[in-house]
Amino acid sequence: MSDVTAVDQLVKKHIALKKEIAKVIIGQDVVIEQILLSIYTGGHSLLIGVPGLAKTLMVNTIAQALGLNFKRIQFTPDLMPSDILGSEILDQHRNFKFIKGPVFSNIVLADEINRTPPKTQAALLEAMQERAVTIAGQQHKLELPYFVLATQNPIEQEGTYPLPEAQLDRFMFAIELKYPSVKEEIQVVKNTTTIAKGSVAPLYNAKEILEIQDLVRRIPVPDNVVEYAVELVNATRPNMDSASGFVKNYVDWGAGPRASQNLILGAKANAAIHGKYSPDIEDVQSVVYGILRHRIIKNYKAEAEGISEEDIIAHLLEHTGAI
């Protein structure tokens, strides 16, 4: 099968996949699309939203529709790394035996990841980056495809442990969940206050997801699109000569090279699901907020003046001639 045919098939299956997910999840189209883009590219996603927006149900539903294994870990202050990764025990023959933790799954939901101490948060780093975990000097490979979808509550910050920048950078997307519209909320209430429950049929399997990831990486990208993505990321760095006065005034630290890589991968996947065989600058713009939002560190002046990460990204787009 040629790559052109494969992209055409992906468009059809992506539309069918969204329809299947919509049987359970009402609205949140942008959120679902960004989660799927991260899965098509092999990335991880951080979902940021207040309680009650169906974050857990959404991840579970997507896992079912993709035909992948799913495990949920509730992060709490007393959670230990071994509770996530697994541990070695002595069996009845007095031999050490490794018992796998919940991290051994295709999709891992790290629920309220910022409620556990840094030591436990860091236990996910190797899994996210290397798709493996090391226990007692022995490396255990994780089954592919592998995704971490973490949730974070933007309110109730007492007793939380903010994710370090190194871990935030491992997430391809930081996705903000908004409240549903009145019309959507009416439909949610109707659907969830009766006996009937929506069911989701699997449309993919693990092998097909890996094939999509390979397809996305094979999609060619024009040089001007790569240059634009890199210039956009460079413009977030206040110590660069090319940085604008706005960025120097409000940003402490900008995004690293992983942001440039993710912008291109995200643009490739975004182009593919819309039937394009090569991404353009508009595809980069479509994914820029989710990819840069958590990689820009504002300073105290931005906080004091109410300047958000979205404001900074909007300025960057204008500064690099994208609008």
Keywords:
Rossmann fold; 47% helix; 2 domains; single chain; Helicase, Ruva Protein, domain 3; alpha/beta; two-stranded antiparallel sheet; 323 residues; 14 helices
Question: Could you please describe the fold and organization of this structure?
Answer:
The protein has 323 residues and is α/β, with parallel strands linked by helices. The chain folds into two domains: 3-192, 3-Layer(aba) Sandwich (Rossmann fold), CATH 3.40.50; 219-319, Magnesium chelatase subunit I, C-Terminal domain (Helicase, Ruva Protein, domain 3), CATH 1.10.8.80. 47% of the residues lie in helices and 15% in strands. The protein contains 14 helices and eleven strands. The chain has helices at residues 3-21, 29-41, 55-66, 81-85, 118-130, 165-168, 182-192, 206-218, 223-234, 245-250, 257-273, 281-292, 300-304, 309-319; strands at 45-48, 70-74, 86-90, 96-100, 107-111, 132-135, 138-141, 147-152, 173-176, 251-253, 297-298. The mean pLDDT is 85.
Low-confidence stretches: none
So how many helices?
14
* Main beta sheet: 5 strands, parallel
Shape: globular
**Rounded radius of gyration (Å):** 20 Å
Q: How many domains make up the coordinates? A: 2
CATH topology of the largest domain: Rossmann fold
CATH superfamily of the largest domain: P-loop containing nucleotide triphosphate hydrolases
**From the helix content, strand content and strand pairing, which structural class follows?**
alpha/beta
**Order of the strands making up the biggest sheet:** 2-5-8-1-9
At CATH level 2, the architecture of the largest domain is 3-Layer(aba) Sandwich
The percent range for strand residues is 5-15%
Number of strands: 11
Query: What does the average pLDDT come to?
Result: 85
Which series of helices and strands comes N to C?
Answer: HHEHEHEEEHEEEHEHHHHEHHEHH
> Could you name the CATH class of the largest domain?
Alpha Beta
User: N- to C-terminal separation?
Assistant: 38 Å
